[in-house]
Amino acid sequence: EVQVVESGGGSVQTGGSLRLSCVASGFSADDGSIGWFRQAPGKEREGVSCINFSDGTTYVRDPMKGRFTISSDSAKNTVYLQMNSLEPEDKAVYYCAAEALDTCRSAATILPIGYDYWGQGTQVTVSS
User: Fold this and answer.
1) Span 55-59, mean pLDDT?
2) In the prediction, which pLDDT does 101 show?
3) Between β-strands 3-7 and 33-39, what pairing exists: parallel, antiparallel or unpaired?
4) Model confidence at 102, in pLDDT bands (50, 70, 90)?
5) Which of 1, 13, 53, 106 is most exposed, with minimal Cβ within 10 Å?
């Protein structure tokens, strides 16, 4: 059974930073993907970033490019989302999701439908 657990959310002021962590247990990462998503109140869940373990490529959607970075630590079976220069518009519940296939292929296709296993989410609040 695959379990996905996120952590690291919190409250920061505009311009602050947070690092989210995602541990996917029971998940074989050799050819799979991990994606980060977020959902703000009243809005649809949107893709943020992803990593493709088959070739190590990473993608970040344009609104977050230059501010957010995705990385992984295979020894800890953990994927990180480093978020810098946070803005009030970044306030949302952030979700990590895992998929056994190489779903992560471009920034434009970081879509919830491409991922089967989801964490419970972690709240990120940015105050102005």
Assistant:
1) 94
2) 87
3) unpaired
4) confident
5) 1
Strand partners of residue 10: 124
- In the chain, DSSP finds a helix count (H) and a strand count (E) of 0, 11
- CA 110, chain centre distance (Å): 10
Using an 8 Å Cβ cutoff, are 88 and 126 in contact? yes
Q: What is the mean pLDDT of residues 49-65?
A: 95
In whole angstroms, give the CA distance from residue 43 to residue 26: 31
pLDDT of residue 28: 75
* pLDDT at position 75: 81
List CB contacts of 75: < 8 A, sequence separation 6 or more: none
Q: What is the C-alpha radius of gyration for the chain, rounded to an integer number of angstroms?
A: 13
> Is the pLDDT assigned to residue 30 strictly greater than 90?
no
Tokens 């992803």 — which residue?
50
CA–CA dist 10, 87 (Å, integer): 13
Beta strands in 26-108 (DSSP E): 33-39, 46-52, 58-60, 68-73, 78-83, 92-99
